[in-house]
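Support reply, case 0932

Customer input (verbatim):
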Amino acid sequence: MAAATGNAPTAGEYIIHHLHHLQAGKGFWTLNLDSIFWSLLMGALGCYVLWRVARAVTSGVPGRLQAAVEFLVEMVDTQAKGIVHNAQSRKMVAPLALTVFIWIFLMNAMDLLPVDLIPAIWHGVAPQGADYMRVVPTADLSVTMALSITVLLICIFYNVKIKGAGGWLHEMVSAPFGDKIFLYPFNFVFQLIEFVAKTVSHGMRLFGNMYAGELIFMLIALMGGAFFTAIGLPLAVGHVIAGTAWAIFHILIITLQAFVFMMLALVYVGQAHDAH
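Our regenerated output:
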């Protein structure tokens, strides 16, 4: 990164630079190309791993990867059975939940890479003017909100499929305050607020935690490097020691956030099957 003054960047300049996206377009139609690339790459990687395991599955003693995937499948299936009681719906919902968990986990796990590794590689090969590269898609609000809006659309689909279009629309105006004509407007507004609140909080929760984690990694890189440099150790050593300490703890966070997002998706889809 070239500092605005031509010298080494300040801490603020360093952080601001790393929080910029590689973008195309303007205004509302601005695309964060780095988020799109890394999210698609992690999705393709997750699908490839599951495909390889499915091809090599054996009834004998499983390998470590097969055992891990079988554990995840059983865990997700157990959670889906406890929340979505319609067996026919679970044939789609359970694989969807598994895909969501693995995909979000892989996107979150990009935060474990050294802060400057991929941006440094990108700066070496990028065309003129393409100076930015963020590698954690779930630290981008547009990605997490796209995921939560997709869950909303799935919920609407199951509302209509299970209750019928007329039944769902009637529920929208008759719950939660009662099936009285004078209460219909209040019921409808309340239902809209509930859908919006669930969708926004679903996406914001994942974004907030991963954005904070990304900031902490950058602060650790700065503070750890400065501390170890002050006591006579190379800057890189400070990055590695301080970053590793936080990364070990962060493994729990990236896994927990993927699990929470998956569980909320299951809960919302399960609610779409329930009649008020």
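We compared this against your earlier run and they match. Two observations from our side: The two ends are 56 Å apart (CA to CA). The longest helix spans residues 184-230. Please reopen the case if you see a mismatch on your end.
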